[in-house]
Design brief:
alpha/beta; Rossmann fold; seven-stranded mixed sheet; 7 strands; about 10% strand
Amino acid sequence: MTKIITLTNQKGGVGKTTTCAGLCGCLAKMGKKVLALDLDPQGNLSFSLGADTDSSYTIYDVFKRKADIYDTVQHCDCCDVVPANILLSGVELEITSVGREYMLREHLSTIADQYDFVLVDTPPALSILTINAYAASNQLVIPMVPEILSLQGIAQLKETIFAVKKYYNPSLEIRGILLNKYSPRLVLTKEVEELANIIAEQLDTDVFEQKISGSVIIAEAPAHAKTIIEYAPRSKSAHEFMDLTYEILGMEKPRRTEEKRGRGRPPKHSAPSY
């Protein structure tokens, strides 16, 4: 059965797109059939995965009923992608028909069985696009950074999630809260993490045990249209994303037996030679 997972937070800059791309790469590495669906008018996920957003059908054309969703699917190196561009920002005003909250669910139902996972990237706003994603999803993953404003965004998100569960999608589950740009040495990080655990309890979920550290490699990968697992597979960031993927799937993390390279550090005090 296909699992549809949406990355969401109404606060921008918390790593939704980065997390979505990273999970797509890890799931594909595990041999899963993955569809990445970009619901952000900025189109950052499309760009990160190497999809064309200018001369091809996008999810906007699907909402406007100018194309079927299978017409928008692009076969990229990592996974299949349904792209988005700036035209998507007009959907809120252009689509006013009854049942517009279910449009994405209806269209996804025609192709979802071709994939093991559909990952949806949402805009940093509580719009009709976000509600469509919630109504179509099985699970939500909420990325955040260890900052008070990011935490406030989750608190405001709570009412929308509960409303969608009540009126549109009773089976919607919040899989967990993810801490991005994590640095355990900072006092603020620990304070925000404690507050995040309190909010997670209110949402009937948990903060993921696996955190994603800040890294320049994560920022570099989209410039090469690659996920972190493709761009730097032996990096700490790639290992963190892979472990996060196992945690989201509820699977035990495999033990790594990689051979250490290099000769190691020289002894602190070498014996005198005669």
